[in-house]
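FW: tagging you since you asked about this chain on Friday. Here's the raw sequence from the shared folder, copied in full. Didn't touch anything.
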Amino acid sequence: MARRRRLLPFVLLGLALVLAAGGATVYWAVHRVPEFYVRALAHRPAEERQASEAVVRKTTALASDLRKKSHSWQAVFTADQINGWLAVDLPENHPHVLPPSIHDPRVDIQPRLFTVAAKYDGALGSTVLSLEIDLFLPADPPDTIAIRIKKLRAGSLPIGMNKIIDAVARAAKESDWILQWRQLNGDPVAYLTRPPDPDDPTASMHIDKIELRAGEVFLSGHTGDAK
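HL: got it, structure written out here
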């Protein structure tokens, strides 16, 4: 009995060490920051503003192309340009798009992988949330964009995707887009189809290609009958 009593403190100490190590591992995982996010935040303000202005010019030109009848169009947006827009134009001209708990979003673009990360301030502290998706055009139905939701993390710790799925559903409803959910190798895939709208000057827009490349996203399509 005496030996058992002497052993008990060592068992409790070992258990405490295991719990402490596990807690440290979880803490490190939750507070781990993606490397691309660190690099993106290090860009100089002048470079970010220049990149943001490039996005505004491109989107303005693209909007003009989409209003032309029987016209082919294409556009390329780099990750640096998108990050410049997120750093400058988003907070200056669209400050209420993101909830107060989420700020400083940045993106990374690789072949078949689009990652967006942002700082999140919650009741239990701060972390960096990151979401990995793929974008592609399915064969059916036509004029549909598919968003494959691959991973959602807090730091490097995987978390549930229910809030992302709910956010996609809410955004589709507010934009009057038709939403269908499917699965691809266990990943949820949102199929978004824009309903016809004869009053929309861009209603005849068709996207022919979406391609995620190293550091950029390529878009091409046509309006009317042009291809």
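FW: Residues 175 and 194 are 9 Å apart (CA to CA).
HL: agreed, and The chain has a mean pLDDT of 83.
FW: great, closing this out.
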